[in-house]
């Protein structure tokens, strides 16, 4: 229901869900992480569909400094900008009723690469005797709002077009393949292809120094396993499981893998066992890497199971998450026959 003409931003406090009178359709995000200062800056341009009369736009934001002077919707600046920290919402109030239909909301913001393994955070790793930071995202269930202002509920699906500005020597990954890349001195700007419709919690970014091993499915989908430099051999088992599993699932479900690539990344500091981000699955090292010389048979089985489950998720998360978790066990017993 749309708010009344006399309503104020306070009406949105304490609400369990975001209002439904406006919804995102497409995000254009530009992010620049600083891995030395452990901060990031960003800009968002969001195509928003206003479906009912309103003077407000209400979205999620947490642990972000939003540049209030930069906020515009269809060229209009809000008369009031209110952040309710306890509810993790940003309320934009405009002088008059917003135009019905689609419009573009723009704003700039910045934040901290935290050490809490949620949102946009930093993970430490060793490289040539030094400790370095990588930038990692973990947005499930509702932590995309700690990286960029957004409608951070699974029902609000949209397309995403990401651009990253990172040090030129680093690897920068996201859900989709690179569309184009330019290098200007120490910084490279990477534009990624637009994603399919997906929820905010499936958006993923990883920036750091990595080695990788690569394979290709029977349908031509590129599969890579990214590891810390010097550990790529430990990714070969997961790669083999990945390529063969995607081939198997394509035949088993008579459904092609819906994305052009699948990247798997081993992260040193990672709260979950693994996270099925669309096209960029992130793992704890122990659930992705297998050392033929020192790892146990149970480790190999663990790597296999986590991979089987997450590959299923990339197929079916847009439709039914509970199917993924339950059916993973069934397919888990079928898949070994292909290895």
Automatic annotation (TrEMBL):
- Give every Aminopeptidase N-like N-terminal domain span: 24-202
Q: Which Pfam families match?
A: Peptidase_M1 (PF01433), Peptidase_M1_N (PF17900)
Q: Name one GO molecular function term.
A: metalloaminopeptidase activity
Among the entry's GO cellular component annotations, what is one?
A: membrane
Q: Which InterPro entries does the UniProt entry name for this protein?
A: Aminopeptidase_N-like_N (IPR045357), M1_APN-typ (IPR034016), Peptidase_M1_aminopeptidases (IPR050344), Peptidase_M1_dom (IPR014782)
Q: Where is the Peptidase M1 membrane alanine aminopeptidase domain?
A: 237-303
Question: What GO terms describe the biological role, i.e. biological process, of this protein?
Answer: peptide catabolic process; proteolysis
- Protein name, please? Puromycin-sensitive aminopeptidase
What organism does the UniProt record list as the source?
Zizania palustris
